[in-house]
Write a structure and sequence with these properties.
By secondary structure, this protein is α/β, with parallel strands linked by helices. The protein has one domain (1-181, 199-257): Alpha-Beta Complex (2-enoyl-CoA Hydratase, Chain A, domain 1). 48% of the residues lie in helices and 15% in strands. The chain contains ten helices and nine strands. The strands form two sheets. A six-stranded mixed β-sheet has the order 1-2-3-4-6-9, with helices on both faces. Strands 5-7-8 form a three-stranded mixed β-sheet. Helix 1 (30-43) runs parallel beside helix 2 (72-90) and helix 2 packs antiparallel against helix 9. The N and C termini lie far apart (43 Å).
């Protein structure tokens, strides 16, 4: 591991917090994706685990993938690794939640969408801005419609607009917007009231059953959208131009119209 993921055990190990620990922004680089995958290996045989949560260090959840890794060559390695992590996360035999402070963008939002619940601080902001840099969010395009319906999901994917925690709470995506107390204190109360008295083995079966339809719908389409991204989108001028423009702090000059 490269030290980009920090683990915190709460409630005698019955709740494990994985922290994206690369502030500012906690970018989901290939190295961080690999560290998350290793962290899941360490939990695969955990007994008595009742909750697994994901959060970001430094007051931000994640700004998404490293912009440099959106270029065609690194993306051919980054995207398959990310898709594999998504499959593993959806297959976890434990309830999961994203604990979101600050910005939750791009790949960070996609990772949060893989969780059973999203608990958010009042300042949390969620968005899928990939279209602005010549890309699209494959995981977000698949999971968001299942969580909030096609209309809101299409708007988020196509416009790249960022929305507040309250917006997504009203849409049914965010399970809880924390009150004035800290998000972690709210999460502790959530664990104590919702999960602590349940059987860990029953919770494991319940969450796998609850995700069964999502996995059946999403997993074959992950392959399809991965192919679309790598073989079709990355073959265009605009896929590279969007990233170059962002890195050079200029307006993109789109050609594939």
């Amino acid at each position: 591991m490269s030290g980009l993921i920090r683990r915190i055990d709460e409630r005698d190990g019955r709740w494990v917090r994985l922290v994206l620990d690369a502030p500012p922004g906690n970018l989901l680089s290939l190295a961080m994706v690999a560290d998350l995958d290793i962290a899941l290996d360490g939990l695969a045989r955990a007994r008595g685990l009742q909750w697994l949560t994901l959060e970001g260090a430094g007051g931000e959840f994640s700004f998404g993938a490293r912009i440099q890794e959106h270029l065609p060559e690194p993306m051919r390695e980054v995207l398959p690794a990310t898709m594999q992590l998504v499959r593993r996360w959806l297959a976890l035999a434990v309830p999961t939640a994203a604990l979101v402070e600050g910005r939750c963008l791009g790949g960070g939002f996609e990772l949060a969408l893989c969780c059973d619940d999203i608990l958010a601080a009042p300042d949390a902001a969620f968005g899928l801005p990939e279209v602005k840099v010549g890309a699209f969010p494959p995981v977000g395009a698949l999971l968001l419609p299942l969580r909030v319906g096609a209309s809101r999901a299409s708007r988020a994917v196509i416009t790249g607009q960022t929305q507040s925690a309250d917006y997504w709470h009203a849409a049914g995506l965010v399970s809880l917007v924390a009150p004035e107390s800290t998000l972690i204190e709210s999460a502790r109360r959530w664990f104590d009231t919702q999960l602590a008295d349940q059987s860990a083995v029953v919770l494991a079966h319940a969450c796998l059953a609850a995700r069964a339809v999502v996995r059946v719908q999403v997993e074959p389409l992950l392959i399809q959208l991965e192919r679309q991204y790598l073989e079709e989108l990355l073959a265009t001028h605009d896929a590279t131009e969007g990233v170059r423009a962002w890195m050079e702090k200029r307006a993109p000059r789109w050609e594939d119209r």
